[in-house]
Amino acid sequence: MRPLSVYIHIPFCVRKCAYCDFLSFPEDQGPGEAGKLQGRYFDALLAETDAAAEKLKRDSAAAVLVRCVYFGGGTPSLSDPERIREVLTRLEERFAFSEDAEISFECNPGTASCDKLQELRRAGIGRLSIGVQSFDDTELQLLGRIHTASQAVRCFEDARAAGFDNINIDLMAALPGQTRESLLGSVRQAVSLAPEHLSLYSLIIEEGTPFYERYAGEVPDPHFDRRDPDRADTGLSHLPDEITEREMLHAAWKELAAAGYERYEISNFALRGRRCRQNLTCWERGEYLGLGLGAASLLDETRFSNTRDLHRYLEAFRGSVPAEEKTLSGGEQTEPLSRIRENTEHLSAASQMEEFMFLGLRLTEGVREERFAAAFGRSVDEVYGEVLEKHIRDGLLMRADGRIFLTDYGTDISNYVMAKFLL
Ligand code: SF4
């Protein structure tokens, strides 16, 4: 069997957060009447599922086995649970699923009522990822989030009551005005809820976001000097400087480790057996199929993504009907895919090796040397001997038990280390 992860993108949000550069927009800003738009989007998703399944069946020698499904966004919890159920049912009709398939769903605390969470659970969602970001109301307000800290706590408790026994909490570090104590306050609050998984990413000021606009003129690129004292004039409090940011993160990691959470990736923590399968697929270069607007895929060592143009996406599937309702040849059914799939890149052996290294090094346990050799027919030393030697000497990488992994220092400057593995 050919293991596969499926990612489903739901691009709608209540409103845009101040730091967000994800492919998402308030529902009433898309083409067409607000309210009807989601209906059209889900119809297109179902048609894309049919077409993608047909194409995979036609192109694949081995039968596909879905090991996980991940609804990301945007704000999937803004959707009608009935439509989510439809998508899951359609996937199950078109693909074989492993018995223990992990079905994850991103949830914004401002959009998830008790009833909705129960419906989602009944629809087959097994793992909830709650985008909390902070348990400090001032920070939440600054980020432009639509919920308060107490709503986030209530959402978590409602999710437990609805039967979710696998929950992730997303938190953010290096926020404007955030201190070590306020970050630790959020981490402690999260730990007190006892989620199975926790993600802690640092804020990145992305071009094109309101956050970036507020720093315009002072910020030549996203990696600007966070210590610039003039930033107080922008109306935002200071961002922590890089050294403070690292200290804050290390303090948070320590807190999480003491509470029993293992850091298994640079920014992800889990209780035993609760690592996120979808994330692991990406870091281990497993195959995944992205469905929906802008969704990315990796299949047969080819990367491609769907159009980011909502109008084009909806138009491609307009009038599509499920295969069993109308006799369509495989070619006819899969034809809309050629109109939405773009940025196709067949990965060379060199690109595959680069990805193997810089994605694998994100994992705390690092890359396995024997896996590299099995995948590429060459030892990691043959390809990267010089880089490895230098980085080990500089204290950025370690080698033990057939694995190569980042040291704490290497983790602190991981982007620099990984860039060195580009061939
Ligand atoms: S809820 Fe998430 S996807 Fe939507 S605007 Fe905020 S950060 Fe972006």
Computed over alpha carbons, the radius of gyration is: 22 Å
Domains counted in the coordinates: how many? 2
Name the strands of the widest sheet in spatial order: 9-10-8-7-6-5-4-1-11
Beta strand %: 15-25%
Instruction: Give the helix tally.
Output: 16
Distance between the termini: 32 Å
Give the helix proportion (percent range). Answer: 40-55%
Largest sheet: 9 strands, mixed
Fourth-tier CATH superfamily name of the largest domain: Aldolase class I
List how many beta strands DSSP finds: 17
CATH class of the largest domain: Alpha Beta
CATH level 3 topology of the largest domain: TIM Barrel
CATH architecture tag of the largest domain: Alpha-Beta Barrel
Low-confidence stretches: 217-236
- Ligand roster: iron/sulfur cluster
Shape: globular
Structural class given helices, strands, pairing? alpha/beta
What value does the average pLDDT take? 91
Summarize the structure in words.
The chain is of the alpha/beta class and 423 residues long. The longest helix is centred in the first third of the chain and has 24 residues, at 36-59. Residues 217-236 have low confidence and may be disordered. It contains 16 helices and 17 strands. It is globular, with a radius of gyration of 22 Å. The protein folds into two domains: 2-283, TIM Barrel (Alpha-Beta Barrel); 349-419, Arc Repressor Mutant, subunit A (Orthogonal Bundle). It starts with a strand and ends with a helix. The structure holds iron/sulfur cluster. Iron/sulfur cluster binds at residues 13, 16-17, 20, 22, 24, 73-75, 108, 131. Residues 13, 16-17, 20, 22, 24, 73-75, 108, 131 line the site of iron/sulfur cluster (SF4).
